[in-house]
C-alpha cells in the first residue's frame, strides 16, 4: 500500500505538470458547457414545472461528468497513443491502478467547477429548493468513477483514430437522447427500453435523487447498476493495461 500511495502521488503530480497548459482551458470550457445546458435548454421551453426544472438543474452536473470522463479523458488517451506517450506511461514500473486513479483524480477535479456552477445557476434560474442527501458526495464520486472507467475502456479498446467519433456520439446521446435532462417517459419505447441497460439514466438518477431526495427515499437500483458498470469499466481497462505491459 505505501508503494501504491507513493506511485499515486507522483503520477498525480506528473499529470498536473504535464497538463498544466491545457487544464485552465478544460476548466473554462467545462464550466461554460455545464451552465449552458441549464440555460440553453430552458430557453427551448416556453414554460416549465418543478420536475422539468429539477431534471435540467441536476442533469447538467451529469453532463459535466460524462463530458470529462467519457469525452475529454479518452480523447487525451487517444492523443497519447498517437504520440507514443501512452506506451511510455505503461512502461513505468508503477501499479496500473495507481496510474488510472491519478488520471481519474485530475478529471474529477476538472469537472467540479462546472458541476457547482450548473447547480447554482439552475437553483437561481428556477428558484429551486433542494433536499440534499448526505450521500451526494459518494454518489458524485461513483458517477465520476463510472464515467472515467468507461471512457478509458473505450480509449484503450479502440483505435485512436475513431475515439473522437465514439466520444462525440456518447456526448450527443447523453445530452439529447438520454433521460438525463428529461424523464424517460418522453422517449420512444424502444429507446427507453435500451436505456435500461445503459448507464446514462442511472448516472443522472444517482445525482438527481441525492441532490433532491425523493419522498419515498433513495432507490438502490441506480447505485447497484453503476457499481456493475464501474466493475466492467475498470476490469476492461485493467485487462488491457496489464496485457500489454
TrEMBL record:
The chain crosses the membrane at residues 23-48, 54-77, 98-123, 135-155, 162-182, 220-241. Keywords: Membrane, Transmembrane, Transmembrane helix. One of its GO terms (molecular function) is ABC-type transporter activity. It is found in: Membrane. The keyword Transmembrane helix applies. GO terms for cellular component: membrane. This is ABC transporter permease.
Amino acid at each position: 500500500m505505501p508503494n501504491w500511495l507513493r506511485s499515486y502521488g507522483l503520477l498525480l503530480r506528473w499529470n498536473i505538470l504535464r497538463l498544466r497548459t491545457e487544464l485552465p482551458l478544460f476548466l473554462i470550457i467545462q464550466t461554460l458547457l455545464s451552465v449552458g445546458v441549464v440555460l440553453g435548454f430552458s430557453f427551448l421551453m416556453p414554460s416549465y414545472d418543478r420536475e422539468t426544472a429539477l431534471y435540467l438543474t441536476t442533469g447538467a452536473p451529469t453532463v459535466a461528468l460524462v463530458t470529462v470522463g467519457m469525452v475529454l479523458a479518452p480523447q487525451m488517451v487517444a492523443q497519447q497513443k498517437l504520440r507514443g506517450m501512452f506506451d511510455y506511461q505503461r512502461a513505468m514500473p508503477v501499479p496500473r491502478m495507481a496510474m488510472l486513479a491519478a488520471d481519474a483524480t485530475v478529471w474529477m477535479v476538472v469537472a467540479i467547477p462546472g458541476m457547482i456552477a450548473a447547480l447554482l445557476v439552475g437553483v437561481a434560474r428556477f428558484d429551486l429548493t433542494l433536499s440534499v442527501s448526505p450521500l451526494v458526495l459518494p454518489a458524485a464520486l461513483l458517477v465520476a468513477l463510472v464515467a472515467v472507467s468507461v471512457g478509458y475502456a473505450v480509449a484503450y479498446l479502440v483505435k485512436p483514430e475513431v475515439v473522437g467519433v465514439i466520444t462525440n456520439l456518447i456526448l450527443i446521446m447523453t445530452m439529447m437522447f438520454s433521460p438525463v435532462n428529461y424523464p424517460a417517459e418522453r422517449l420512444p419505447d424502444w429507446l427507453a427500453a435500451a436505456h435500461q441497460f445503459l448507464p446514462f439514466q442511472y448516472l443522472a438518477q444517482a445525482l438527481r435523487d441525492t441532490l433532491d431526495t425523493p419522498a419515498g427515499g433513495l432507490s438502490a437500483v441506480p447505485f447497484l447498476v453503476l457499481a456493475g458498470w464501474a466493475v466492467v469499466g475498470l476490469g476492461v481497462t485493467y485487462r488491457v493495461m496489464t496485457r500489454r505491459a
